[in-house]
Amino acid sequence: MSGTQTGEKDAGIGAVGIDVGSTATKAAVVQWGEVTHTLVVPTGFSGVDAAWRVRKELAAQGVPVDELPVVATGYGRVSVPFAIKTLTEITCHGRGAAWLFAPDGTVIDIGGQDTKVIELRAGRVCDFAMNDKCSAGTGKFLEVMATRMGVAMDELFELAAQGEGAQISSVCTVFAESEVISMIGRGEPRQNIAHGVVESVVARVVSLAGKRAGGSCFLTGGLCGEPYLVERLSQRLGTQVATCKQARFAGAIGAALLA
C-alpha cells in the first residue's frame, strides 16, 4: 500500500529516511510514490559513522543525496549531521507501517534494544506502548541467547519450530541466560531450548500489546523475515500478523514520507 497525507513531501521530489538503530542503521529513499532504494549497515560504535556510510553507499547507487532532504529517526537519530530534522521512532514507524500495510491496525516492532506496539487510526498514531527498560523481549535478548547456544539468529528460529516443552521463566535477560546455561548443562535438546527462548519473546510482546492487538497487526523491524516468529505471534494474538520484506525499513520509510 502507498499513499500521501497532508504535510508530506511531494512524492515526485523524493526524500531519504535514515533510521539509526542500536544494532543496524536502515535507510530508505522514497521517490515518485515508491520506495526506490533501501540499505542497511551495522551501526557499530558510532551512529555518526554509520550515517556517513549510508550516505556514501546511497550516492554510489546513484541516489542524489546532496539534492534530497534527509530525515533521521531511531535510537541514534541525533547522530545524522546532514539531516534536516529528526522525528521519533513512534511517529516514523507508525507512518511507515500505514504506508506499507493499512491506515488502521497495530504495529509491532521488535528492535535491538526495545519493543514497540503502536496503535494506528486513519494512518496516525493514537496510542503506543514500549518495553525500553529491559532487553527481555527484544532482539538483543534473542542475540544473547543465540550466542549462548552457539547458533545464528536464523538457526535459532529454525530450531524453535522443531522444539517443545522448555520454558524460560525469568523476564530478566541475565537470569534467563542462566536458565539457558542450566538447560544446556542437563542435556536439554537445543530445539527445546530455542523453543523456550522464542516463546519467552512472544509472551512479552503479547503482554505489551494487550488489548491493542484486537484487529489487524503488522510486524516491522529486523525480525519480520522470520516466518516462525510471525506464525507464533499470529497464533498467540488470535489474528494474522502481516509483514513484508520492506517492513524492516518501516521507520526509514516513514521518515522519508514525513520529510
Automatic annotation (TrEMBL):
Residues 16-259 form the ATPase BadF/BadG/BcrA/BcrD type domain. Its cofactor is [4Fe-4S] cluster. InterPro entries: ATPase_BadF (IPR002731), ATPase_NBD (IPR043129), CoA_E_activase_dom (IPR008275), Dehydratase_Activator_Redct (IPR051805). It comes from the Bacteria. The keyword Electron transport does not apply. Keywords: Iron, Iron-sulfur, Metal-binding. Signal peptide: none annotated. NCBIfam families: CoA_E_activ (TIGR00241). PANTHER family: BIFUNCTIONAL PROTEIN [INCLUDES 2-HYDROXYACYL-COA DEHYDRATASE (N-TER) AND ITS ACTIVATOR DOMAIN (C_TERM), BIFUNCTIONAL PROTEIN [INCLUDES 2-HYDROXYACYL-COA DEHYDRATASE (N-TER) AND ITS ACTIVATOR DOMAIN (C_TERM)-RELATED. This is CoA-substrate-specific enzyme activase, putative. It comes from Parafannyhessea umbonata.
